[in-house]
Amino acid sequence: MERSLQELVWRRAGGVCEYCLLPSMHHPVPFQVDHVIAQQHGGETIESNLALACLRCNTHKGPNIAGIDPVTRKIVPLFHPRTQRWDQHFHWDGPILTGVTPSARATIFVLDINHAVRVTLRATLIDEGLFPPRR
Ligand SMILES: [Zn+2]
After folding, report:
1. Among 53, 86, 87, 90, fewest CB within 10 Å belongs to which?
2. How far is the CA of 27 from the centre of ligand 1 (A)?
3. What are the residues whose beta carbons fall under 8 Å from the beta carbon of 120, sequence distance 6 or more?
């Protein structure tokens, strides 16, 4: 991937994971440029298919493009940071991320966004006034 494209993705995201909003500056593990639609499914390496993701989100997402909504048990597409607005799909309950749409709930589940370690990290950042990041 071209360096200029990587820089665009970082700049556009403001250095924040586009799924869980973890700020890269407060996390030691490197962030990655995610193919929203994985290359395995024909996703291209173009601006409209790339998102900044923390290592945990990107690792859990892998090549997944869909998940099962824990409420409706239906298969739904994962949240797409380029075509959907984060604020319309997710909201915070303290350090816990809540999904208000089937896609958001499936994304939280597949990406394991509310794993205990991640919730603890966010709670610490909240205590320090560093989370959620201003966007
Ligand atoms: Zn993340």
Report:
1. 87
2. 10
3. 95
Give the tens place of pLDDT for each residue, 25-73.
887 788 999 999 999 999 999 999 999 999 999 999 999 999 999 999 9
What CA–CA distance (Å, rounded) separates 114 from 93? 11
**Helix H or strand E encompassing 122:** helix 116-127
Side-chain-facing half-sphere of 73: CA atoms under 13 Å? 0
Surrounding residues of ion ligand 1, Cβ less than 5 A: 17, 19-20, 22, 54, 57
For the chain, the first-to-last Cα distance in angstroms comes to 26
CA of 38 to the centre of ligand 1 (A): 16
Cα(11) to centroid of ligand 1, in Å? 16
pTM over 0.85: yes
- Judged on CB neighbours under 10 Å (0-12, 13-18, 19+), 21 is buried
Residue 76 is inside which H or E element, if any?
strand 75-77
